[in-house]
Design a protein that fits this description.
This protein is an all-alpha fold and 342 residues long. It has one domain: Glycosyltransferase (Alpha/alpha barrel). 55% of the residues lie in helices and 2% in strands. It has 12 helices and 2 strands; from the N terminus they run ααααααααααααββ. A two-stranded antiparallel sheet has the order 1-2. Strand 1 and strand 2 form a beta hairpin. Helix 2 packs parallel to helix 12. The chain is globular and about 45 Å long. The protein starts with a helix and ends with a strand. The N terminus and C terminus are likely disordered.
Length: 342
Amino acid sequence: MVIIMRRNYIFFIAVFVLMLLYGVTFAQTLPITNGLAYLQSTQSPEGYWGDAAEVPYNAVVDTCTVVETLNYLNETGAEYNTAIQWINTTEVSNNDYLFTKMLVLSQAGIDVSTIKDYLLGIKNDDIGWGVTEGFTSDVKRTALALQALRVVNYPDQNLIYSAINYLKSNQNADGGWGLKNGMDSEVYYTALAIITFSKFKATYDLQTEINKAVSYLFAHQNPVGSFGEGTVYETALSFIALIESGAVGAENYTLLQNTIAYLTSTQLPNGSWNDDPYSTALALRALYIASSEQTQPTDTAGSGSLEKITRSYSCPTPKIHKNPDRKYVFLRIVFLAGNCYG
């Protein structure tokens, strides 16, 4: 009788835990589901996202950012394919647009050799890139160039190394980056540089620079969990950069939770963030990464890094005019030494 009662007790406890976990999972999928619904409902008949008055310029950046998010979330259906067709046929000249176009088209399996050859042909003597041909190199375009070249598996490591050195030489003493050498550090450029370096850290020794930049970002996190000026896109990009860096210690785990809570709390009833496809796409990617990363505090061998058990992801596309201005649970219950981390 005692054995039967014990078995029944264990059974009911197990059912209760499963119901609890299901309820948490269902609740936490809603921001991602609603965000995807917003994106689906706001795509233009032509296939782009953004204001029609900003075609092709910022609409290209909006659309590329959304496409990257859809690709990462494995939502590569009709909306994704229509957007890829629009991007492929839309003519742009600014390097921001060209590098982002090169990246997302390559991810979609489209030949980008013409764009690649043109961009390689207009690099500056310092092996950096500016806003367009003949303009002074800057951190933003050089970081975008490196990310795009990595996606196409560009083989010339001498050029890659030189472009990386350009970024290294422009890191400020506080660990951050500004747009150009001598400019004050900003959260946006620092997050972009971290993501870029993180993609090459397996080949080049970049951890010192990454660690300094991570410290800069945490020093510029706001009490509510946002970063920098508190914009959604800065906050989401910073979260992505911190996770990708592999240099976030267990002591900062709560700070990352605060960021996810901030992003969740700022989603509008229509599923968007700021009624803006760019901010919405970045926020969705951050929430999805938070779910699929399944990070937990660890100090294995004194590394002080967050354990990562998921695939890497592509870099978010920065929006031009907003530069300083499927359904997975994104908060997990992780049992570690008797403690529960959300």
